Every structure is written in structure tokens, then in C-alpha cells.
Amino acid sequence: MDKSKSLKEYISKAKIIIQDDKKLKELIDDVLKKLQKLSNDKKTTKKLNSYLRVFIRLVNAYSSRKYTYVPWKTITLIVAGLIYFIYPIDLIPDFIPLAGLIDDIALIAWIYESIEEDIDKFLEWENNS
Predict the structure, then answer these.
(1) What is the radius of gyration, based on Cα positions, of the chain?
(2) Looking at residue 2, what is its pLDDT?
């Protein structure tokens, strides 16, 4: 599957989920459950866990209207990444130990790096709140 087409599909889904607080909460719950299952492999998941937890805190702050200083593009990319993490059309299935998470880690890291300036602003806000 064409990766750019796939990402566009996830972004489309993200735009819908962002508008529905119940679906957004369900997505976050699913991400946290999957992270819990992966926590046995500390080396593989440490950075992924860190990035996803920042994403979750930012989405929660945004959806609760406590932190609304985030660009629409940023929140959409974050939610698209969370959707991908839960419902991936993986090139490498997640049930293959370590290798199955490579594409998840790569996409989440790419999103994080793409919006790092917005993440830094959020973390600064979070630390001062």
C-alpha cells in the first residue's frame, strides 16, 4: 500500500475522531492498553511509550479545552498517529517480535519530529500549569 495514501486515510479518520469526544477517549484507551501489552520489552518501547504519552496528554488537554494553542494540523497528525498505532496497515505485522513495531516506531517518531516545536510549547505549558 502506498504510504502517503495510507497516511492521508489516517488523517481523514483523525479529523472525524477529533470531533467526537467519545471516540477520542476510546482511541486513547486503546493506545494505553496496547502500550501496556508492549511494556515487557523496555528497550523497544521506551521512546515509543514516551512519545505516545506526550501525544495522549496533549490530545486530552486539547479535547478538554485546557490547551487550545495547538495548530489543527498538529492535532490531526497526532490523532492520525494514534489511529495508526492501534489499527495499522503494517508492512510488518505487530505479532512478529521487535520487527513488527519498526513501522509503528518510525511513523510515531516522524510525527513527533515533524511537530516537535508544537510539542515543546505544550510541554512548557504543561510544566508551568
Answers:
(1) 14
(2) 47
Domain encompassing residue 83: 3-128
Cβ neighbours, 10 Å, residue 112: 20
Helix (H) / strand (E) element for 74: namely helix 72-86
Indicate the number of domains in the chain: 1
CA distance 4 to 126: 32
Quick one: how many helices (H) and strands (E) in the chain? 6, 0
What's the rounded Cα separation, in Å, for the pair 36 and 106? Answer: 19
CB 69 within 8 A of CB 125: yes
| pTM recorded for the entire structure | 0.78
Model confidence pLDDT, tens digit, residues 44-72: 578 888 999 999 999 999 999 999 999 99
For residues 62 and 70, is the Cβ–Cβ distance under 8 A? yes
